[in-house]
Amino acid sequence: MMATIPSTLTQPWIRKRPFGRYAVVATVAILVLSPLLLIAYQSSLNGPFFAESSHFDTGAWRYVLGARQFWRAFGTSAIVATGMVGIGVPLGAVLAFIMVRTDIPGRRILEPAVLIPIFLSPIVTAFGYVVAIGPVGFISLWVKSLVGSVPWNVYGLPSLIVIAALTHVPHTYLYVSTALRSVNPELEEAARTLGAPPWRVALDISLPLVRPALLFSASLTFLLGFELFGLPLVLGDPAGLLVLTTYLFKLTTLLGVPSYQMMAVVALSIVVVTLPLVMIQRHLLGQASRFATIRGRGLALRPLKLGPWRWVALTIVVAWLLLTVAVPLGGILLRSVVKGWGEGVSLSRVLTLDHFRGLADYPNLIRGIVNTIALGVIGGAISVGCYLIVGLTQHRWSSRGVAVLDFMVLIPRAIPGLVGGLAFLWLILFIPALRPLRDSMIAVWMAYSTVWLAYGLRLISTALLQVGPELEEAAQTAGASPMRVRWEITIPLVRLGLIGSWLLIFMMFVREYSTGVYLFGAGTEVIGSLIVSLWGAGGLDLIAALSVVSVAIVSVALATALRLGVRLHD
Amino acid sequence: MGGLLLAAIGCGDDAAPAKPGDASKPDANKEVNSATGKGTPTVAAFTGAPLEIKASDKELLEAAKPEGKVLVYSTTDSASAKPLIADFNARYPEIKLEYQDLNSTDLFNKFTAETAAGTDTADVLWSSAMDQQMKMMQDGLGGSYQSPEADKLPQWAKYQEPGKTAWGTTLEPFAFVYNKKLLPADAVPKDHTALIKLLTDKTDLLKGKVTCYDPEKSGTGYLANSRDVTNFPAFWDLAAALGKADVKLYTSTGTMIEKIQSGEHIFGFNIIGSYILPKLKTDADTFGMVFPQDYTIGFSRVAFIAKKSKRPNSAKLFLDHLLSKRGQDILAKQSLLYPSRTDAEGEATASGLQKELGDKLKPIPVSNQVLDALDQTKRLAFVEKWQKALGRS
């Protein structure tokens, strides 16, 4: 399986000039590069690009690159990102292996639960931690009553790294588990028969086989470390900790009016971080066919028997769930049903449903929730369709076009939301052809789809990577046209990847806010914009109630999907 | 007060004679006189002030009807604005009010970009970021409308220049807020000097538990602190005391309120009073608020009409409504926003504050003076001095 497959067999239907594929690459390039180019242009001016008085000036670059705070923030972001990869990726891989390849008890309940942190808004999660384990959090006060003091500090760098790592485990989990599902079980069974314990099977067989997914997860997690905003804002600020995004946030007010050029410089510095990531990834991946394990023969997936190891596995999973899901969610749930909390408050006396009542009275709430769900379900499905087209373009095409795509798709995600939202607003406003899109949710959908392209595409690519070429070749030999091969062979084989992608994109769309902040209007508000609006009203009570409602909705959607036969596992 | 109190009898088919050359769209820059005259039909009985009915209202309404809607960008959250919006909708059902609540940075970004692109944008801007509002006025983004209701506004709330007008609709105080359960009543400071003393004497109690806005990251914070410097010569001693007490700085009032309530923080300096008022009702055991007796700064939510507004008459209608006694009473009684109109009635009004504090109340005037908050050199210099005073450079 290590020999190179002659290109005539791997690319039987790539024409001399594959116009279709070039067209897709060009479209993606335009979508992805326009915000970036606009931001780069803005960074080299001395005022807003649409102001007549603005002209070329390197002042913004000189200020930011010469600012001690910028470099300190950069360093802190790098430390957080590294910590997230170091802790989060191995944990995610282990969790994926346990859930997907073993016979751990309670899988049906545990598996959906693992995905919960993905659709919790980061600021809400952070506040959940503050309410639960902050200086006067309810768990902290309980521990204080037992041992006299609170042995941890939820604010500060160590806590930020740990919490960020734990909450980003589901990203790794999602990619690695999708890949693991298509791994040939015979290889693992062989190892097991020879007497290898499950952890050995994982380390030596299963996980190496899903190296692309692991590498991608590591790159993505590292990138997300630079993107973190809500967590450092709530957990870092009180400790005087500044990361790149909160430094960016500072630049919106430091000079009185937002300084777009300086914000652009900081945004570009984050994008620059992604360059080496993708290059390393491509270099390490090498031959794609090594990872193709869906072969011509039909195989049933049998989970590995854990035996006595099952309790160890269960402990790991439950411990992670407690720390990452139960604690913050519990905090938010509690906050949504109490009038007050903290020092000197007896919880039983302040229970109330007033916040939910207040929520029901809030203007535009129902409309916002409906918009969010529609955007997630329908918009998400259309997005996945588009991602499939891009994925198929990359499929079996070993030319530079693929390399270019790989790099480009990460760029929109690399631009921090504070600047990305502005860039999308400017593009929609100043490109006449796009202006009419503003009044509908189409503009929002386009912005979201571009930003989450890397995520959605990756799940599909991972699945496509594991389809062995023999199946497609067989169909080709039997006379099917390339289109037919794709439609009847390739796509059905990757349906798990498609569904996983749709689920992920749905959750991301529900949670997203800053990308579309300027594109919303009356009638097109979503839960994210409602949360910000509620923030202005002062206090967490309504936000907590709304978060509980939003989590409930997504959980119900997840449960319904599972019930209706969408299976996370075979 | 030429208004008549009509109880759903009157119909006003004889409108005041149209001004020559007006047609149905009065010129945006022309002054609208408040003539006496017959009233417009009233909307079903609304509690509150009697309707001030002027002929000019009817004229304006007729001109606004073809426009059909008014788009407002505001930093006042939807829940607080809801009573005012509902009243407007009931009073003028033909005019659809689209209210978008945004934070001040987003409002600035969105409005300036849309205006530059020439697309449809807000007709009325209503924001608490006084410096940014005045900057937009200075840059020519704001238009002019001599609202007849503006006569009743205090002098500091009126900005009137050729072709430009802006109005301060509220006067909200920066107060001392504290957690009653954790700060003994006799320790509550009466003024800024007492605050310095409190911070120095009770450092153990308050260390890490005092909070205020971050002037670096919060426009409101900078506005307040820059006024503190002018009103309180010992401000830098206060900053030093805050630094020794490990003051926690935030940008969001919501966060500070939440932390004071939970007891994570005990004392808040320069917290916006209008946010605390509702808490004083629902959570009276926990929250305490005092206005510093040596001076209390107040900021205002500034409103103006967009110069290039596509619906100028509806915009004027909304602005009139916002500044009318009826609208301001709603702000006082239901939204608790300390409206600035001198004859507004309710528990939270600017005139009430004026009575309580006399000349110790220092409103930030709606004027070009506010623009020096945007002087970048001054700002950076202040921030640097602040960091040094806190001991955090």
SSE layout and pairing:
The complex is a heterodimer of chains A (570) and B (393).
Chain A: H1 7-10, H2 19-43, H3 59-65, H4 68-101, H5 107-114, H6 116-119, H7 122-133, H8 138-147, H9 157-167, H10 169-181, H11 185-193, H12 198-209, H13 211-227, H14 230-236, H15 244-251, H16 260-285, H17 310-336, H18 354-361, H19 365-394, H20 400-414, H21 417-430, H22 442-451, H23 453-465, H24 469-477, H25 482-493, H26 495-511, H27 527-536, H28 541-563
Helix pairs in contact in A: 2-16, 2-19, 2-20, 2-21, 3-16, 4-9, 4-10, 4-13, 4-15, 7-14, 7-17, 9-14, 10-13, 10-23, 11-12, 13-16, 15-16, 16-20, 17-28, 18-28, 19-23, 19-26, 23-26, 24-25, 27-28
Chain B: H1 55-64, E1 69-74, H2 78-91, E2 96-101, H3 104-117, E3 124-127, H4 130-138, E4 158-161, E5 164-168, E6 172-179, H5 192-201, H6 203-206, E7 210-213, H7 219-231, H8 235-244, E8 248-250, H9 253-262, E9 267-272, H10 273-282, E10 287-290, E11 296-299, E12 302-305, H11 312-323, H12 325-335, H13 350-357, E13 361-363, H14 376-390
Helix pairs in contact in B: 1-11, 2-12, 5-8, 8-14
Description:
- The complex is a heterodimer of chains A (570) and B (393).
- Helices cover 69% and strands 0% of the residues of chain A.
- Chain A is an all-alpha fold.
- Chain A has one domain: Orthogonal Bundle (MetI-like fold).
- In chain A, helix 16 (260-285) packs across helix 20.
- Chain B is α/β, with parallel strands linked by helices and 393 residues long.
- Chain B has 2 domains: 55-169 and 300-348, D-Maltodextrin-Binding Protein, domain 2 (3-Layer(aba) Sandwich); 172-298 and 368-390, Periplasmic binding protein-like II (D-Maltodextrin-Binding Protein, domain 2), CATH 3.40.190.
- Chain B has 14 helices and 13 strands.
- The radius of gyration of chain B is 22 Å and the shape is globular.
- Chains A and B meet through helix 21 and helix 27 of A and helix 2, strand 2, helix 3, helix 4 and strand 8 of B.
